[in-house]
Design a protein that fits this description.
Order of helices and strands: EEHHHEEEHEHEEH
Strand content: 25-35%
Distance between the termini: 27 Å
Shape: globular
Helix content: 25-40%
Number of strands: 8
Number of helices: 6
Oligomer: single chain
Largest sheet: 5 strands, antiparallel
Length: 183
């Protein structure tokens, strides 16, 4: 599924995206707020292993991975956003990251809004849940701009703290989304 927005081209992650994933995951500012289940420093074959062992096997099977690209450079991945129909034990449907040089341009809000709309219009989700580290206010702002509301906090392992930190749980229901779309 390919999605074009005003500034972005979102397309399924492909093998040629491995190099950019590896490049950005070697940057602490990209990976520091991700879940503590990734190794740090990121292994030199980490992106390739993740692609072959996970993305390639799961893509389109109730789990979607989109490469985020600027519209004028549709083959150069600058980030990723994923959507999972199953609500994993961590309690989130959507996860995302963006390369540091592209922070602050509104790209992630644009990508998240597009994926949110696809989840409700084409994939028939009834609600969407996202988690973010309390220590990552930029991600929380992106999530809130996309219509999600804070529903609680709990302890969680986030990389930036090499242990537990508080996690904000954010939710958007189909009814809330419909109300957003009408306004």
């Amino acid at each position: 599924m390919i999605i074009d927005t005003k500034h972005l081209h979102l397309r399924p992650v492909v093998e040629t995206d491995i190099a950019n994933t590896q490049r950005y995951f070697a940057m602490w500012d990209v990976i520091k707020h991700l879940k503590n289940n990734d190794n740090w420093p990121y292994p030199c074959d980490g992106a390739e292993k993740f692609y072959h062992d996970y993305i390639k096997l799961e893509q389109g099977k109730d789990h979607w991975f989109w490469a985020i690209n600027e519209k004028d450079n549709p083959n150069y991945m600058i980030g990723e956003i994923e959507l999972d129909r199953e609500l994993p034990s961590e309690g989130e449907h959507i996860g995302f990251w963006l390369g540091t040089p592209y922070h602050g341009k509104g790209y992630m809000t644009e990508a998240l809004t597009a994926i949110r709309d696809v989840a409700f219009t084409q994939l028939n989700f009834e609600f969407l849940r996202i988690n973010c580290a309390v220590s990552n206010p930029a991600s929380k702002r992106v999530i809130e701009k996309s219509g999600f509301k804070h529903i609680g906090s709990k302890k969680y392992s986030w990389r930036a703290h090499s242990g537990e930190d508080m996690n904000d749980e954010m939710l958007l229901t189909r009814d809330e989304w419909l109300e957003l779309k009408q306004n």
